[in-house]
Amino acid sequence: MNLGKKVIYQIYPRSYMDTNNDGIGDLRGIASKASYIRDLGVDMVWLNPFFISPQNDNGYDIADYYHIDEKFGSEEDLDNLIKVFDENGLGLMFDMVFNHTSTDHEWFQKALAGDKYYQDFYYIRDGKEDGSLPTNWQSKFGGEAWAPFGDTGKYYLCLYDKTQADLNWHNPTVREELFKIVNYWIDRGIKGFRFDVLNVIGKDQILKDSNGNIVEEKALYTDTPRVHKWIRELNNNTFGKHSDIITVGEMSSTNIRNSVMYSSDDDSELSMVFAFHHLKVDYENGDKWTDASFDFMKLKEIFNDWQVGMEEGGGWNALFWNNHDQPRANNRFGDVKNYPYQSATMLAQSIHMMRGTPYIYMGEEIGMTDPSYESIDDYRDIESKNAYKMLKEKGLSDADAFNIISKKSRDNSRTPMQWDDSANAGFSNETPWIAVNNNYKKVNVEEAKEDQSSVYYYYKKLIELRKSELVISDGTYEPILADHPSVFAYKRKYDDTILVNFNNFYGEKVEIDLKNVLVNIENFEYLQGNYHHRKISQRLKLNPYETVSFIKR
User: Fold this and answer.
1) Quick one: which of 17, 53, 160, 207 has the fewest CB in 10 Å?
2) 305 is catalytic
């Protein structure tokens, strides 16, 4: 399987298309848009979890891995979705949350009822002699990473929400149960799996305090050697038996060395990895909940290091700007007010020409933006509400705290898909679970498809190029102009073909000197750009947020 030719589209089911008019997107709604997704040119669709869940973390708190939450439809609806996608040449990628289960899950409930067999499915520990918690670990959602285990006087580990209990992968029965889940869905026709926070499954059996440093604390449970061992075991017992299944691991705070091992071309672990370092370059001193400009030079350094490092090690990158956990990239790294088209297309081309497998998050292909909400009450995300409270407690004013939430909330990408200019953007006939972005009358699918010069058709072209140009799908990667303060550029090479891609990340014109960068520059031809067809020159002028690629065959 040539992963370099694949493009994957992500759908947040709750916000894609509502067909039963309850304000929540559903599986039937996704099936109804199969031809739209097919026509975009993608190969596979990743769906965020739609299993039975109390929805404390928007479905990432799974109570039953085998059944569909009735909010999203029925078993028949899922069968139909698989069938319709298959007829349209689309594979389905399911989201597997295997680091933890909901505390509503049968396993946890049996453990809570006193069943020793199921108590060993989780990290259940006594407090310390002084009455304090088993360790001083902090939850990734804020607060302590332990919660009382009923009235037993013990505690269970919950690295995320209190209702998400960490699974004990040391127990072979736990691993076997997870293998059964994956194999069940493979038998149902699922062709891909995205594994949530997979690199934090490797906690020790004996848990110990950290020194209070968050980096040192994460090292106690992140990217440990046993993670690789357990992923190989998962591979051997499930998807590794099939040559046509694509897998991707969401890897929290990982590094290149481990990511090479996770995604090496010997197929012993996963197809590829999600790494998030490039989406933290607007975190002030590593703190997400700040209002900081992005560090462009750091962004370039991260992209170049990962592209080169993964290639040298034989690993494989998932390429992405957006997903359900991130604000829209065009708001973060572009100018959606003055250069909406240029920002969206520049960001797209900057990664679609790279080595890896591109992911497109729903709405990205039409230039959807963050919403312009006016109150914290407009948000639904538990993390955002907790952060707002925390910022207020730190002394920030209501306005300053809300400003930060409006820029960093996960809900920014979870607003309903904008299909047309009718009520609720054509998403639902009823009030959606979260408000539609008020720019939907101008930014919507119907409008985009009528305009051949829209962001939508630009994405279609980028996908076509990846499938037709071996230098994009299979070429090597080499950074160029690494020290330039506003242009991100690189060179791809496959046999005698060379492609160069230039991306201006700012709203001012800039001139770059290519005299010592490209040999035989007169032999390069225009391939793709977001301004106009043009010729390359030794002194190349780039417009605001311009992206342009040239090729020499």
Assistant:
1) 207
2) no
